[in-house]
Every structure is written in structure tokens, then in C-alpha cells.
Amino acid sequence: MDKKRVAVPLVCHGHSRPVVDLFYSPVTPDGYFLISASKDSNPMLRNGETGDWIGTFEGHKGAVWSCCLDTNAFRAATGSADFSAKIWDATTGDILHSFEHKHIVRACAFSEDTNFLLTGGVEKVLRIYDLNRPDAPPREVDKSPGSVRTVTWLHSDQTILSSCTDMGGVRLWDVRTGKVVETLETKSPVTSAEVSQDGRYITTADGFSVKFWDANHFGLVKSYNMPCTVESASLEPKYGFKFVAAGEDMWIRVFDFHTGDEIACNKGHHGPVHCVRFAPGGETYASGSEDGTIRIWQTGPLINDESEPIAANGGTGRVKVSADEVSRKIEGFHITDEGKSREKEEMENA
């Protein structure tokens, strides 16, 4: 392989079981953050730019299948095999509320205005919890036709998107009526669904295919066949010229959005890749794998001269996060013994 096309990712260790979901916060005054869900039952929060571990959310009793952060990265939400979805204080690690379910929770998502939490799972029920009245019963949307795999909001929280584990298609629900208004047809179950940062596209991964849909008119814009079964795909958020996709063959592939041509192919994981997501500025993307690691890859060096790696956005959009800013985020966080010893070491060396 041409030497300049080999990318060396940042490797983030910490999880003891497969990493099954990743979520980047938007850019906040304190930078941006990455949360990961794992079958080890311990979601982790990291500095989104450096990959540095900030803290571990401790409290679930089973595999955690889904995770997300609210718009300000003040709160986290997780969905678990312990039949619960939890809301966490992302600055302290405290559990703010636990919503009990009757079966495994596979997916969760904060509304854009951060007032509601959407959950779905094996129960085949979509629930909307009012976070301003967490003890009130949730609103239940019309029954899902199958076990829910993914959920997200779009159209300024007027529409809900969901896919199922055991059947193809993406269903779009009107929040006001609780009814399905549109179905995006796919041959295989959709394992990943992402609304682009500008709200124009819905990116889906199903079987050997990555598809891009018009998020407003719901027409199919582009469909590309992949070299292997893909589990996740993500569109570069700043320019939308590239997308990444990954799955069972352990490779992370970068493609041209307009042509579908493969731009780069990176290997580093030692197991199937379950999730890929671009950082909010598009300069990096993260992958989570069966091997228990998260890898953060530079978007830029794959197409630029190897002597001077730059970000896809020319380096102008990078968010620099100072130690003081990160310390504000982690102050009071419940950190593990490993984190405490690291903190002590840093204080001694200061």
C-alpha cells in the first residue's frame, strides 16, 4: 500500500467488552465530547478532540447499547440490557433519573431542545419522556412493527425516525399524531441512521448498502453498494463531500459522497466495527469495535501530503480545548481508581 495512505489513529482503551455505540456532542464553549456505549455496562466520556478519558458512568447492571449527549453536553443518556434508560449529569457522573422499561432498551436520543428523551427497544414501543417532569408517565407512540434498533429526532423535534432489528425500512413518525407518515424502504434491517448536521440528509446503513435520503422530501438521493456487510455509516458534517462506513471486515473505509469512489481504507481494529461517527467539525471520525477499543482517525492526512497532515477543513475549524476548560467539565466527576492515580500523578508532576 502507498505509504502516504496509511493512517495512524489515536487508540482509546478503557472498555473491557465490545464498543457498540458512539456519539459526539455539538461544539460547546468547553470544546466537544465523545460518549461511548459498551457491553461492559460502563459508558465513558472523553474529550472529543484528544480522546482523553474524562470519566465513567457507573450504575448500569447490563450491557449498554445506546448513548447520547444533550446539545450542551451537560447531560448524558444511555439505554441498557438491564431494562432501563438513564439520564446522567455529564459534569459529575451522577444518575439524575432512571426510566424503567419492561425489556432491553436498544436506542435513546435527546430532543434537539433537550426537553425530551426518546427510547426504543425489544418491547417494540417508542416512548417520549418529559425531562422537566421525569416522574410523569411517558408518552407512548403508536406501536413499532418490530424490535427497535435505532431512534433519532428531526425537523426541530416534530418528527421521530426509527428502524427495526428484524425488518428493513426506516419509519418516520409525526410526533403530534404519533403515527407513521413515511417509510424509507430498504432490503435489510437498518443498523445505523444519522441525520446530517445541516438537516439535509438521512444516512442509513443496511446490509451491503449505504443510502442517503432527502430528510425533507424523503426521496432516495444516493445508494452505494459496500464491499462487506456494513453496520454503521456517517456523513462528514462540514462539507458533506465524504462519508465513512465500516462493518464486519474490520476495515474503516472513506468514500466520496458524490461518486461513491473509495478514497481510503484503514485497518487497526481486531474485530468487527459496530459504529463510526464524524466529529462535529469533520476533521476526525471515531470508530468503535468488537475489540473493545475506540479509534479516532484524522480525515485530512488520507488525501493530503504525508509530510504535513492537515484537517479536512484546512485546520481552521479545529476546536482547541484548554486544560482549564476540560477541568471545568470533569470537576466533581466520579472517576475510577485508575483516573484517581493518574490525577495524583499529574498533580505531583505539576
Automatic annotation (TrEMBL):
Q: Which domain of life does the protein's organism represent? A: Eukaryota
* Protein keywords: mRNA processing, mRNA splicing, Repeat, WD repeat
- Classification via InterPro entries: WD40/YVTN_repeat-like_dom_sf, WD40_repeat_CS, WD40_repeat_dom_sf, WD40_rpt
| Molecular function GO terms recorded | RNA binding
* Coiled-coil features, chain-numbered ranges: none
CDD domains for the chain: WD40 (cd00200)
Can you say what this protein is called?
Serine-threonine kinase receptor-associated protein
**Native organism:** Coffea arabica
User: Which gene is this protein's source?
Assistant: LOC113697304
